[in-house]
Design goal:
By secondary structure, the protein is an alpha/beta fold. Helices cover about 25% and strands about 25% of the residues. The chain has helices spanning about 75-90, 105-115, 155-165, 180-190, 200-210, 230-240, 255-265, 315-320, 325-335, 335-340; strands at about 1-5, 20, 25-35, 35-45, 55-60, 60-65, 65-70, 70, 90-100, 125-135, 165-170, 190-195, 215, 245, 265-270, 285, 290-295, 300, 360, 365-370, 375. An 8-stranded mixed sheet has the order 1-4-3-2-5-19-20-21, with no helix packed on it. A 6-stranded parallel sheet has the order 6-9-10-11-12-13, sandwiched between helices. The longest helix is centred in the N-terminal third of the chain and has 14 residues, at about 105-115. The radius of gyration is 20 Å and the shape is globular.
Length: about 375
């Protein structure tokens, strides 16, 4: 089967035959691209179990990235390229730069720099799609690893932030007085309002969804838990959500709880919540104004609180497969669903007209090739 688009064909990624995951299923064949877009997928339908060819999947889209390669988003523009080059080595082809709770002047400074950076994509880097503002509009009683600069949202402040950078997602605690109106107003403007870092009740979570909230930030973590007589925010998510984030590092959430969420939330998508420690050896790193320690596969504050992760998206894929998901569904939760959540029809899937963002993995699910917008990434020699 050939799915053509009218233009001259052009190949850049080594074009050996692959098992290509498309929205219509697996195709054994070759992907063709030009000027950063897929123009054809040449081949025939297949079952990857019937051959030993590599997998070609849509590039991973991570909507919650604080840092990587020893650098933190809150450090500003000097850190951005290191972070995007680090994550592309692990198959992340696009991401949301995620801020920490901080004083307003610090947030404004970082947003101003991100606004400029989002307009470009340095060679060898993942694309920054915009910003995830995680705080400061959270409950000070449920900070998790966020610094203690939480405060009630004011529309004037949010408006100022929106002028600085393309803010795609805002994490917010819905139980804070006045936040219901802000959720409604911002969601009507296309900002994805996520419930997180919250002590809210089940009823407050359901009301926030009715007001326009669309997802939950790192489900289970930093939110009121499920109890059979007090379902909490977790209960609201499991009962009513279409979308929610999950950190599949097998440390933040038990595999059993992951399966509950996967059965309950149709478009559950996975994020890394990665910190500066991602892609780095054990040691001390910055997370906003905090110093965190990477050891034993995790990142923690001095008191032992989990503080983001060291997860990468290729490992997230392997972890999802490890707990029983087929590769096609694991890919969907790392690519298509986050793209759908942001309304990005040209990302998160491999089909004519989509961006040529893809990852090739061998049969052991080891990453071997990455392409971003038609550019083959030389991450092995980085």
């Amino acid at each position: 089967m050939t799915i053509p688009l009218n233009c001259e064909l052009f190949r850049e990624l080594p074009m050996s035959e692959d098992n290509i995951l498309t929205p219509n299923g697996w195709i054994r064949g070759r992907l063709v691209h030009e000027y950063g877009k897929v123009v054809a997928i040449e081949g025939t339908p297949c079952d990857p179990a019937d051959n030993d060819l590599p997998y070609l999947l849509p590039g991973f889209i991570d909507l919650h990235v604080h840092g990587g390669g020893g650098k933190d988003i809150m450090e500003g523009v000097a850190a951005f390229e290191t972070i995007t080059r680090t994550h592309v080595r692990f198959g992340t082809t696009s991401l949301l730069a995620t801020t920490m709770t901080a004083p307003a002047d610090e947030i404004s400074s970082v947003l101003g720099q991100l606004g400029t950076f989002c307009e470009q994509r340095p060679a060898g880097s993942a694309r920054v799609l915009g910003v995830h503002l995680e705080g400061p509009y959270i409950n000070p009683g449920k900070l998790g690893a966020q610094p203690n600069f939480a405060h009630t949202a004011l529309m004037a402040e949010v408006e100022a932030y929106l002028r600085l950078a393309p803010i795609r997602v805002i994490t917010i605690a819905p139980e804070i007085a006045g936040h219901d109106g802000l959720i409604r107003a911002l969601s009507e403007r296309g900002v994805r309002m996520q419930i997180g870092h919250t002590l809210g009740s089940y009823e407050e979570g359901v009301a926030a969804l009715a007001a326009g909230a669309t997802s939950f930030t790192h489900l289970y973590n930093a939110m009121s838990p499920l109890h059979h007589r007090e379902p909490g925010i977790v209960g609201a998510a499991l009962a009513h959500a279409k979308y929610a984030e999950l950190i599949p590092d097998l440390l933040h959430v038990h595999p059993g709880a992951m399966r509950v969420a996967l059965r309950s939330i149709p478009c559950l998508y996975c994020v890394t919540d990665s910190t500066a420690a991602a892609g780095m050896p054990d040691g001390e790193y910055k997370l906003g104004s905090h110093t965190v320690t990477k050891c034993l596969g995790g990142v923690r504050l001095a008191d032992g609180t989990l503080a983001g992760s060291t997860l990468t998206m290729d490992q997230a894929l392997r972890n999802l497969v490890k707990i029983g998901l087929p590769i096609s569904e694991a890919s969907q939760r790392l690519s298509q669903f986050p793209a759908d959540y942001l309304g990005l029809e040209e990302r998160g899937r491999l089909q004519p007209g989509s961006f040529a963002d893809c990852v090739r993995l061998d049969r052991s699910l080891t990453l071997t090739d990455v392409m971003v917008e038609g550019e083959t990434i030389d991450f092995k020699n980085a």
